[in-house]
Amino acid sequence: MTVCVVGAGAAGLSCAYELKSAGQDVVLLEAASRAGGKIGSVRQGGFLMENAALGLLDREGDLAELCARLKLTPVPADPSAHERFAVRHGVLHQAPEGPGSALGTGLLSFGEKLSLLGEPFRKAAPRDDETIHEFFQRRFGAAGAFAGDLMQLGVYAGDPERLELASCFPSLAAFERARGSVIKGAMAEGKARKASGRARPRLSSFANGMQELTEALAQAVGDSLRLDTPVRAVARTASGYTLTLGDGSTQACTDLVLTLPAPAMASLLKPLDDRLGALLSQLEAAPITVVRLAYPESAFARPPRGFGVLAPGRPMIGLLLPSRLWSGRAPDGTVLLSALVGGARARESAALDDKTLLALVTSELQQWFGLEQSVQPLFADLKRWSEAIPQPVRGHRARVAEIDKSASDLGHLHLGGAWLHGVSVLDCLRDGRRIARALSART
Fold first, then answer.
1. What residues make up the domain containing 190?
2. CA pair distance 71, 77, nearest whole angstrom
3. CA–CA gap between residue 421 and residue 413 (Å, rounded)
4. Which terminal residue of the chain, N or C, has fewer Cβ atoms less than 10 Å from its own Cβ?
């Protein structure tokens, strides 16, 4: 059995790695000149920057297990990572870490805080396709709209009135089903974690950035990985599939795994199954432009600290502070910032020209942290992603179930990755492992 995995992002690398570890014959095809997809770490003038994900939050121990196998050493973020900030009505506030601390925050009005207290007493009324906005308003009353928006923004940069709660935050839906309350469910989970001796999960990265993880996976896959090898077409055969590659050559396989962005999967699969191609074409993503800046720490009247800032409803939706979280990200006396512009509700902002984007970000830094107007950045760098974060909008679970069934009906076809089964890097790693284990179990 030969398995072709197309797309060497986190899901594809994970799938190929697990298959190779199990002794399977695997070929991993990647159109780009390097593996890792959006994950990439860049060094410039003493600064270490990320193209996309800043780190990983290992809630279930998956990262620790994988790193042990790859002989990698995760580096936990500075304890200050628990400090997070949010902007509301133009004012910067420290964000609460949980329901208890929410009562002391300036982010919420007195009436909104009172509405939080009623959450454990509200009747459970879950709906399968409920949006984040609907769920949070139902569970948290007056505070729900802002709380739900803040929570989703840091993960999806989406529109809470369209995102499906059960797809985006299944644990919250599970808390309500099991305990009748989000707060009661979260408290029960915390008690269970303490009773089992499990430590609170911490954000982690690597000494050389996130690319260290994807490079280790690529190295483990070895010569099974073929870079600069785009797949132009897929044909069904009696024994599996034949792929037509960019140079006109072909690659045969018994099983095909696609972990590409949904539009690319739709293009390849539409000739095989028009309905499957149409379903994949319905999936969407939000654009983000990452604006990376560095300044002398002395340039700020109120130096940024903690993990970063979320700003619901603004074109610059967030700010990350990598140099506050890990040593070696910036020279002493300087601050490295990654501003996020765009998202599902500000698509046009992500497409602004470089000069306008830099002016936008600089204006926010002046307002939030007192950045001196006369100080120029030590460097400025932009990374544009037109399809940065997949959006699990209402009906996503039902749509994905139909996509998975259509792929299964074709036979020996497996689809995975961020557009289908979870947007985080760890979700993608798990998805690749899931597919690999299902294939290995058949032999």
1. 108-196
2. 19
3. 16
4. C
Residue 64: CB atoms within 10 A of its CB come to 12
Which residues, 6 or more positions from 360, have their beta carbon under 8 angstroms from its beta carbon?
A: 315, 316, 341, 349, 352
Question: Do residue 215 and residue 182 come from a single domain?
Answer: no
Tokens, residue 83 = 């400090």
Asked if the structure places residue 298 within a domain, the reply is: no
- Please tell me whether residues 179 and 226 are part of one structural domain: no
In a domain, 409, yes or no: yes
Reported pTM: 0.95
Distance CA 270, CA 23 (A): 32
Q: Are residues 273 and 413 in the same domain?
A: yes
Domain match, 177 and 249 both: no
Q: pLDDT value at position 242?
A: 98
* C-beta neighbour count of 434 within 10 angstroms: 17
Confidence of residue 443 (pLDDT cuts 50, 70, 90): low
Q: Are β-strands 240-245 and 308-310 bridged in parallel, bridged antiparallel, or unpaired?
A: unpaired
Q: What is the pLDDT of residues 361-420, one digit of tens each?
A: 999 999 999 999 999 999 999 999 999 999 999 999 999 999 999 999 999 999 999 999
Q: Answer yes or no: is 338 within a domain.
A: no
β-pair partners for 257: 5, 414
Say if 156 falls within a structural domain.
yes
Instruction: Look at residues 138, 136, 119 and name the one whose alpha carbon lies nearest to residue 185.
Output: 119
Separation between Cα atoms, residue 159 and residue 227, nearest integer Å: 36
Q: Which CATH number goes with the domain that contains 140?
A: 1.10.3110.10
DSSP 365-392: HHHHH-B-TTPPPSEEEEEEEEEEEEE-
